[in-house]
Amino acid sequence: MIEDEATPRLVLPPGPRFAAIGAEFVRGAAAVAGTEPHRADRLALIAEEVLAACPAASGPVSLVLRDRRHAIRLELGFTTADLDLAGLDQARRRDVEDTAAVGLYLAARLADHLTTEPAGAAGLRLGFDVARAYPARVAAAAPEGLGAMQGTPVEPDDATLALLVDWAEASGTGGPAFRTASRVLDQRAAGELTALVALDARRRPLGGLFWQPFGRRLMALSGSAVLLPEGRAALATALLHAALGRLARGSIQGLVVLEPAPEMPAEAFEVVGHLPDAAGGQHPVLFRALEEDPGGIAWVPEALRSWVTETVRRLGLGRDIEAPPPPARATGAAMAAETDRAASRVTLRPLLAAADAAAVALGNVALFRAQGFAQCRAVLDLGQPGHAAFAEGLVQAGLAPAALIPDAAGDLLLLASPG
Question: What pTM did the predictor assign?
């Protein structure tokens, strides 16, 4: 049944008999939402392959379609997490006779982003994102003669925000978040991006700062994109102070800056690590807490214990560092990969933990290196014991701990290979 137009939902039994029904539901719901036919077909095929691969013991499967403007997400919910979904891992070798594994592999490849999360007391939710395609265009450059900042930074209207992104893209400032104005507007309309912009007396944008959800209660800052040739540091500081004033009134635990712009006032943050860049150098990863850290547990495998312990001590975090229990499953581990071909970078994240996680991690790094990705990263949630099982394979593949982003509910450990 469909709950409403904004969130179409259907519940079906698993298995090949109902896979075509699920596919047609997804295709029709996506079309009603205005999704382009080729994207609707991709989503429909994902639904069909996953449903067909699930045995009857999986129980009823819920299909939910969420229009996120810049991407459309298909969520498949299961009442149990005891599922064999190893086929979702791209690094596994395929047996052409194992149609279920091949179908899951195809579903994973069709998605631009794949996530797993708990659902209810014992269930599991898979999220498959298919991104909207934005036509290529040449962004206009900022005019000469922009004036000094007037007043305090504000949340801009759509026209001003689009102008800022166009000017930042043309000048190459602000980083990848400040690219493709229509995408940025869609992200904000979906509630997944907040922007602050500094204006001159003629209400023209001089610079801006974005933040987006990162982890459970963290925000990732992007920018600052500064368009003035002079006074860049002062403008970036004004933008940051305005952002802190807004975020401090909410429930956000902290801010992380993965790729700080040169103007970002680093003295306002702690350095929680360094990430290699494509040029062979390194840049700092910045963090600022917005509330007191209450302490927590970090599940850390032996291969990472020394580095994590030293970093926790340096950052003054209250953590009980525990050895993780072995995964309950013997086989079936899987990882998801987020690729950025423009930066020649892949970021791996655990999907499902099992005792073969180390081999799966090793295979994923080898797979994407063979595809030409120069930078490999991985993100482990130290609040989830199962994530620790992937660490040994990542370290064997040449990735090393690079940054620890504090979150009392589960610190995020970034590992990276040399650029």
Answer: 0.86
